[in-house]
Amino acid sequence: MFRLSELTTAKPTTFELVPEAAALGRMADALGILGLRKLRFKGRLTPVGKQDWRLDAELGATVVQPCVVTLDPVTTRIEEPVTRRYLADFSFPEDDEVEMPEDDEAEPLPAVLDLGEVMQEALALALPAFPRAEGVELGEAVFTEPGAEPLTEESVKPFAGLADLKKRMED
What we know:
By secondary structure, the protein is an alpha+beta fold. It has one domain. The chain is 20% helix and 33% strand. It is built from three helices and seven strands; from the N terminus they run ββαβββββαα. Strand 4 and strand 5 form a beta hairpin. It is elongated, with a radius of gyration of 25 Å. The relative contact order is 0.17. The mean pLDDT is 85. InterPro entries: YceD. Pfam families: YceD (PF02620).
């Protein structure tokens, strides 16, 4: 953790986090994954102006997740750049409905910056949403009443009927 007000503004502050096995286990549990074999978060905090800060880092991790088809363990290597801008004059939108800002790197300036929390958030965002074991395909399930023609993905495509019509006209 860094208390930003106590850091020197004359030059960037470098950091490197490499959690131990017990911390990796806790983080894997928190993220709902099977395992976290390696994790490294390395970068620098650079002062911008009088109060703002910019975090530039590299996240490297080896994660194990269940395959969405077979539930077998799938190991994935993640290498992800991480950038955050901590702004003293940041303000949250106050309307009931707001559009997402184009600048998704900007955040309010915290008094204390927990790099472990930033690392875990970056890892959560970088995890594959639908990990699949190599060579595994998601099949198609077809259900229908006896005697009725099943509705398949192929038959509901917008131009499937036109392609069938064209084929019949060519014959």
